């Protein structure tokens, strides 16, 4: 079990990055959330199988077609017990 926080920078707001991230995370059976930040970046926390988390982070390196990712900063976190689903936060 692995949990990470990632901050994705570049042109990542207004390009459906969050919606695509929810789809990608749910496809990989991850739990957590994603949200826009006031500085124009996107933040997520994702938890699940280590390979699935790594695959989501690799996807974040490019994101959806209209995104232009310039960076992905990743921090490992302690796992959260009893978390269900992957949510889009506002």
Task: Explain what the structure shows.
This protein is 24% helix and 40% strand. It is globular, with a radius of gyration of 12 Å. With 90 residues, the protein is α+β, with helices and mostly antiparallel strands. It has a single domain, classed as Alpha-Beta Plaits, CATH 3.30.70. The chain has helices spanning 17-27, 50-60, and strands at residues 2-11, 31-36, 42-48, 68-77, 86-88. A hairpin with a 5-residue loop joins strand 2 and strand 3.
Put the structure in a nutshell.
With 90 residues, the chain is α+β, with helices and mostly antiparallel strands. It has a single domain (2-78), classed as 2-Layer Sandwich (Alpha-Beta Plaits).
Keywords:
5-stranded mixed β-sheet, 90 residues, Alpha-Beta Plaits, 2 helices
Mean pLDDT equals 98
Q: Main β-sheet: number of strands, strand sense, barrel status?
A: 5 strands, mixed
The CATH architecture comes to: 2-Layer Sandwich
- Count of helical segments? 2
């Amino acid at each position: 079990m692995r949990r990470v926080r990632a901050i994705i920078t570049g042109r990542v707001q207004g390009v459906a990055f969050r919606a695509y991230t929810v789809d990608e995370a749910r496809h990989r059976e991850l739990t957590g959330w994603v949200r826009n930040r006031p500085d124009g970046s996107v933040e997520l926390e994702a938890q699940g199988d280590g390979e699935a988390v790594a695959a989501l982070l690799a996807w974040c390196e490019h994101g959806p077609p209209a995104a232009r990712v310039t960076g992905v900063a990743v921090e490992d976190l302690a796992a959260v017990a009893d978390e269900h689903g992957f949510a889009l936060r506002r």
